[in-house]
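User: what does the whole thing look like in 3D?
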Amino acid sequence: MGQERFADVVERFANGYPDLTVGASPEVVRQWQEELERGFKRMQNLARMVQHPVEPRTGQTPREEIYRKGKARLYRYASKRTHRTPVLFVPNLGISRPYIFDLLPGGSFVEHMTTEGFDFYLLDWGVFGPEDNDLSFEDCVVKILPRVARKVLESSGAPELSILGYCMGAPLSASFVATHPEVQVKNYINMAGPIDFSKVGMFGLWLDRRFFDVDRFIDTMGCLPADLVKAGFKLLRPTMDLSTNLNLWWNLWNDKYVEGFTALNKWANEYVAFPGEFFRQWVRDFYQGNKLFRGELVLGGRPVRLSSIECPLFVVGAKEDYIAPPACVRALLDAVSSREKEYIELPGGHISLIAGRGAAVHCWPKVSGWLAQRS
Amino acid sequence: MSDVSAASQQLFEVWKKQLDEGTQAWSRLLGQNPTPTPDPMSFWKPAMEHGLQTWSRIFATTPVTPDLMSQWKQFLDQSIEAWSRALGQVMGTDNFAEAMGRSLDQWLTSYAPVKKAADQSIDATLQALNLPTRTQVTALAKQIMDLEERLDRLDDGIAAVLRRLEGGKA
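Assistant: Here's the predicted 3D structure for the full assembly of 545 residues, as structure tokens:
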């Protein structure tokens, strides 16, 4: 019965289809010609992408390696250095590679900051192997970040530095700033970094201690492999690939779009494993214990009190961020003692703060503008 | 063109309603008190019928221009977004998290002995071939990292002494 009705509808649809050639205005014909040309261009670009895939040239801003520890590398980027205070950029550890911050000329956060005259340093945490499984969150805050900050100050010759934490780099660097008052931090910026993990959304639920035994997981696996990191992020937005590919098809005629897509797609599918002990501490103390926000975190024997952060603070949240929802990012504002603090919420998701046209228009100028006044 | 847009919107609204009802039914199914299995056709077929009727009307009443493709793209975008929200609603429940935790637990239970056996077998093979095992290479890498840490500590100490000396001079 159901099938008959469905067939009737299809037939009505077919009968109702008008004669395409009747009444077509020159404007409509011109539009169809344009669409046809785009169609050819789409096929051309698709064939090129499949038969002769071009490796995108990411990370083109000139830089030099200043320091290395384990897998971590500290890079200093070439710039006019018109601002006196150097900027240390601390991104996420694991998950993805940091060339997203210097994706392509004309679409690079690093390029933007250096063009604006900042003495810009990027900490690349590296790609981890089994030998790094003992690396913990505490090691990063107590052993790596203090040395990195010292190297920044030594190489720049400045007495103080600004720190910019993105994503997981924010809780890492905020913990460092809170526990190392001897390091002169002039400004602190949190871009999409989760602070109050009671508001962290879906990942918070999935990693809740009622449903996820992190000790058993790490004791068995040794680390969080890159494939599982990928699975977790894909699950967070299961329709993302569909949407991405639909947009690719729609814009496939546009060479510039294809170039950007190729670079971004390469990054989006290159996942990095988490060292075992890092993941254990990250889940137990942050997702399950919310210790940083509650003031219960102790690193290297020092209690981590966000209230001990007193420097000017700028917090940037993204309205549709599913990894670090705005509420959990904004929480830093109320936790610190800074007299000068500001929060902005921008359209888009987690990645749209650091990559894409939206970031270059809405986000980067605000970050560099805020810093420039204080550097 | 506004007719096309309105029709597309109308089509989307109909489809969205069906999707919401479908999602609620699946949520109920995954819930604590399972209800009888819903018939997927009862959710999706009416939506498809409405959709085809609406698109049939659009084709019959408006000139066929490439703009219609933009409308179609817009419709697909909205549909994907609606799907995403619907899936998000289901995945954001305790039941889903519990089910995921349980399946991960089962996977670990079956994976652990397999991994242990595979590791032992690979180690034995490499030792028989007089080649270093993964464990040995990892241990060596860790030793190098320990050495690097010691060097860093020495470097820290020297830097601290230099700072004190400079402070003394000032």
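In plain terms: Helices of chain B lie at 2-30, 40-61, 67-91, 94-128, 134-169. Residues 153 and 159 of chain B are 10 Å apart (CA to CA).
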